[in-house]
User: Which sequence fits this backbone?
C-alpha cells in the first residue's frame, strides 16, 4: 500500500511510502490518501502529521503517466481522470479542524508541494529540496497551489516563484516563508517529534478556533470577524482548559490542559 496510517497518543501520522515513484500521485495513492484522511477525521487527533519515505516527501504528479498521456494523445483525459480526485482529497484535508504538519523529509515538488503548503506547519530536513515544477512542463499549477502560495507568500512573490519555478533548498524555503523550521538530517526525526509534541500540548478548542478564525479573517468583514472572535472566546471561557490556564498563569507554572489528555 502506498499510504500508511497510524495514531500514536493524540497524534495521527500519514506516511507516503512509495519510494520507487518518489511518492508521486496516481489513482491508488490518492485513493489511499483519501481513506487515511477519513480515518484521521474519525480518530480526531490533536495533530495530524504528513510525511514521506526515503528521498521524497512527494514529487506530485507521476511523470511517467504524463508521458504516456502525451504519447497516446490523451493528456487532457489523463488530467481529468486524476485531478478531480486529488482536488477532493485536498479540499477534505483543508477542512480538517485539527492542526496539520508537513514533515518534509526530502524532495517536495508540484502537487506534493501544494499538499505541504495546505498544512498549517511545514518543517523540513536540511537536505530537502523544493520546486513548483508546473511551468517547467508548460503546465498550470493545480491542487490548490495558487490558493495556498498566494496566502503564504503574497501575490507578487508567489507569482515569481511559480513562474520561474526554481529548485530551492530548505534554508531558502524558510527564508521565503514556505517552511517554519529546518532541522539537520541527523536530528530531523527527533526534532519533528518534539515539535509535534509541543503542538499537541496546546488547548484543543482554543487552537482549533485560532486556526479557523485566521482562515476566515481573509474573507470576513471586520464586524463579522469581531463577533466570531467574541463567540469563540466566550465558548472557550466555559471550558476546563481556560480555568487551568488562568490558575497556571497565576501560580507561575506550565499549564496542563485537560483536553490534551488521552
Assistant:
Amino acid at each position: 500500500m502506498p499510504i500508511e496510517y497510524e495514531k500514536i497518543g493524540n497524534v495521527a501520522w500519514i506516511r507516503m511510502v512509495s519510494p520507487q515513484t518518489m511518492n508521486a500521485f496516481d489513482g491508488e495513492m490518492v485513493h489511499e490518501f483519501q481513506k487515511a484522511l477519513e480515518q484521521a477525521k474519525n480518530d480526531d487527533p490533536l495533530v495530524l502529521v504528513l510525511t514521506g519515505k526515503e528521498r521524497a516527501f512527494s514529487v506530485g504528479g507521476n511523470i511517467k503517466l504524463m508521458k504516456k498521456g502525451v504519447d497516446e494523445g490523451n493528456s487532457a483525459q489523463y488530467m481529468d481522470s486524476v485531478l478531480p480526485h486529488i482536488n477532493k482529497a485536498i479540499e477534505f484535508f483543508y477542512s480538517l479542524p485539527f492542526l496539520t504538519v508537513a514533515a518534509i523529509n526530502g524532495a517536495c515538488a508540484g502537487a506534493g508541494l501544494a499538499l505541504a503548503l495546505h498544512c498549517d506547519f511545514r518543517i523540513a530536513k536540511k537536505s530537502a529540496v523544493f520546486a513548483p515544477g508546473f511551468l517547467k512542463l508548460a503546465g498550470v499549477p493545480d491542487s490548490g497551489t495558487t490558493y495556498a502560495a498566494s496566502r503564504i507568500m503574497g501575490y507578487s512573490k508567489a507569482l515569481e516563484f511559480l513562474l520561474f519555478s526554481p529548485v530551492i533548498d530548505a534554508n531558502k524555503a524558510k527564508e521565503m516563508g514556505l517552511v517554519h523550521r529546518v532541522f539537520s538530517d541527523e536530528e530531523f526525526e527527533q526534532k519533528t517529534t518534539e515539535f509535534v509534541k509541543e503542538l499537541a500540548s496546546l488547548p484543543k478548542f482554543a487552537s482549533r478556533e485560532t486556526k479557523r478564525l485566521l482562515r476566515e479573517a481573509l474573507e470576513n468583514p471586520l464586524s463579522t470577524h469581531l463577533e466570531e472572535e467574541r463567540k469563540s472566546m466566550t465558548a472557550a471561557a466555559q471550558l476546563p482548559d481556560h480555568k487551568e490556564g488562568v490558575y497556571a498563569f497565576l501560580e507561575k507554572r506550565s499549564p496542563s490542559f485537560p483536553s490534551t489528555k488521552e
In short: The chain has two domains: 3-200, 204-260. The longest strand covers residues 3-8. The CA atoms of residues 217 and 224 lie 9 Å apart.
